Amino acid sequence: MSESKSMIKMAIAYDFDGTLAMGNIQENSFLPELGIDKNDFWQQVKKEAQDQNMSEILAYMRLIIRKADDANTKITYDVLKNHGKSVEFFKGVEEYFDRIKDYAKSKGVDLEHYIISSGTKEMIEGTKIADKFETIFASSFIFDPYGKPTWPAVAIDYTSKTQYLYRISKGILNTWDSQVNKPVAEEKRKIRFENMIYIGDGETDIPAMTLLKSKKGISIVVYDVQNADKVTQSKEMLEHGKVNYAVPSDYTEGSPLDDIIKMTIDKIIIEAKYGKYQSTYQTQKEKLQDNQDNSNVTEEYKEQRKDKFDNEEQYLRTLGITKFSTERDATSCIYLEQDRWNDRGYETTFRMYKKTNEAGMDMIGKIKICFIEQKKGEHTINFLEKNFKTLKNTKFISYFQITKIDITEDEETALRFLLNDIRENDEYDDQDIVKYSLKRGIPF
Q: 331-352 in b/e burial notation, b at 16+ Cβ within 10 A?
């Protein structure tokens, strides 16, 4: 059992526009480049939403495509992502994520950061802080074979934000899996609601804030001290019981927001040690101690464990599958779902799901796979066979991170073997795709 699996899981979910970033992300460079006044744009969005009786989120996504066409400006995923590079953040944001994660770790808490935003995902993925998040849930487009956005893939509005809190809690980190509706006891969830914080900046965040507050989590509204309307609105949200706290959008060490988050971390570990789930906490600590006690096993023991498996079929049986597949409809497999994450042009990331004949999917974690001769600009899915049993003895190598809590040591060993994991192999460390993608870190 790794140290992170023995720690108490905690999540902080953030709105993006007005919470971490100043203003709406589309206003940063995209609208100015098209010569569009931001006030005119949002007025038109509201008018079209009213005229067509449609969601304002769908209206702004539709208008983005139309305005680009009218200006004869080509927009693709990469173009949209590039517009995120110059986003301005509130004070302390860029240094905040690693610092608060380190604080949590020092207390025995494994903290994960998430985005839940109505803003444009493709642009958020281009920002300086994109790699700080386990997953970015945001409004996104479908792209045609030429890279042009043609239709909304996901549209997140103020009410649907609550869905993503459930996804985070249950460890279902995609937007399509209906298993999110399946009842899961709080104590069996990846992250309990009471171990979660939601941070937003206004009325569109109220459903998510109210839900989390009602589930004994913490909801915080932040405001720009220079914006009198936002200050007033935040105070009213606090007075009306929509949130636990209302503080300035200052993420520096020692700020009120920083104090609240650290206080919550401290409370979570105290509850874990002495509250109703203390027996679970103690069991996890004992398993970690046993793991540490056995960490210096002899080479002979390692060889004995290696001899336990002598072919790929035994490894597959250990995992309870017959193959790996990049096809969603395949059964009795570990399904590898393409993720568009981009590391300096290298696209190697997948999500791993265990899929059986009986029911839905159970997320295992994320994995980066690359073809050793792979160049920039193409995703590994273009090189992999749709169905395969192993990557061993091929030109594919991988590096994965597990989030599934109850995976066994034998199952992890099987995954490492079958997927040709290189975490303990430095043979390829001088190759750019390994330096800048595989071993750079998993974008959780």
A: eebbbbbebebbbeebbbbbbb
Q: Dig out the tokens for 408 from the structure.
A: 């066994």
Which of 417, 431, 277, 258 has the alpha carbon at shortest distance from 343? 431
pLDDT number for residue 32: 81
Enter the tokens of residue 358.
């009986």
Write down the pLDDT at residue 260. Answer: 97
Q: What integer pLDDT is reported at residue 357 of this predicted model?
A: 60
The pLDDT of residue 310 is 55
Report the sign of the C-alpha dihedral through residues 38, 40, 41, 42, in that order. positive
Q: What are phi and psi of 83, to 5 degrees?
A: -70, -10
CB of 108 closer than 8 Å to CB of 271: no
User: Measuring CA to CA, how many Å separate 205 from each of 137, 158, 335, 419?
Assistant: 14, 6, 33, 41
What's the pLDDT at 439? Answer: 85
Q: CA-CA distances (angstroms) from residue 218 to 196, 232, 370?
A: 6, 21, 40
Contact at 8 Å (CB) between 48 and 59?
A: yes
Q: Whose structure tokens read 């720690």?
A: 7
What is the pLDDT, as a whole number, of residue 15? 96
Low-confidence ranges of the chain (pLDDT < 70): 1-6, 279-310, 356-360, 405, 441-444
One-letter identity of residue 382: N
The pLDDT assigned to 225 comes to 94
Count of residues in the chain = 444
For tokens 């079958």, what's the residue?
418
Tokens of residue 199, six digits:
């941070």
Cα–Cα distance, 225 to 247 (Å, whole number): 9
pLDDT of residue 137: 94
CA nearest to 152, candidates 175, 133, 171: 175
The angle at the Cα of 137, spanning 210 to 399, to the nearest 5 degrees, equals 130
Q: Report the pLDDT value the prediction gives residue 93, as an integer from 0 to 100.
A: 97
> So what's the pLDDT on residue 295?
46
